[in-house]
Amino acid sequence: MTGHPARIALVGTRGFGAVHLRRLAHLEADGTARLVGVVDVAEPPAELAAIHHHSLADLLETVPGEDRPEIVVVATPIDTHVPLATEALAAGLDVYLEKPPVPALADHEELLEAARTAGRSVQVGFQARGGAGVDVLAEEVAAGAFGPEVTVRAYGAWSRDRAYYGRSAWAGRRRLNGRRVADGVATNPLAHGVHAALTVAGIQEVADIAAVTTELRRAHDIEADDTTFLRIDPAGEGPPVLCALTTTAPEQSAPWIEVTGRAGSHRLHYTEDTSVRTAADGTTAELTHPRTDLLENLIAHVRSREVPLITPLADTGAFSAVLEAIQSAPDPTPITGGAVTWHGEGEAAHPVLEHIEQTLADALETGRPFSELGVPWARAEAVHRWSPPGRQ
Fold first, then answer.
1. Is 306 within a domain?
2. Which domain-ending residue is among 98, 127, 156?
């Protein structure tokens, strides 16, 4: 990175905002970035008090010209993403926006138009896209490397305790104070895998989707889904995308996306940047993939607009359509009976759904929702099909 350090403002210092603070400290140390202000409704730690502001408007009004930010990082509750990003764009700033970028499909086009009008860019924090393995799989799919009958799959078996869903008023909610939140397993904790799988399949825009089938359930005492099946059928001739995701696993494992076809398969553990390619004859090759920091990529883009963004807002339309399909389905119903066992005590307690890891694998192998697999806790009435506007 050349030139002076990029001036960065961070909106939201807690939760994932704390991760951004640590990353920004590293970027400051190597001269890539300089944190010029933070915004939070709560009082910050003492070390941030001198640059703390209660609103973005206050920050922009009070910081001296030499400290005016070039980039605003938005790491706040999901329902605040659009107004904060729009405010930053209108002020002539580029934006790093945490995922999911918007809580509704209609908001996606609104924010895109705001960026176009401002002549500024929005990078979305789908971290899996920073790993080059996603591009490798996408290029292989586009080249027809797996032969006919190709499917893209996303698997995520995570474990979350009561404290995770009690960390804030919006955690685990579909709505809050009349506004969408969309904090389900597929739209927040494991959204990286969903977005990466769509990218691998070449499904990036709303027009690329014919229909989305969902089956949403919950074992946690929350409003949103924590155990979800998705099938995204493409509008064109590309492969469908299957997702089987949960936060009710007995132990957390590395999530993966995989391409399968008659000519072989390729499974990418996207949090580890490793993959295994399997040929039709069963021979395997293990690969490792480099990673690019998404904020550093945005800084490079701001320095030279010829540098392409890795995950621009325009490439997240299909994900926003999947989010819309999930939010359009009825609220997930609780899983009752003996299928759920709670482990641990108090806020550290977490639910384990019986045979969930095998159930996720079976759903991906067959391409069928949980309720078609003979799983006792699944319900056919939880299955819904959504199509984008104009295809309904």
1. no
2. 127
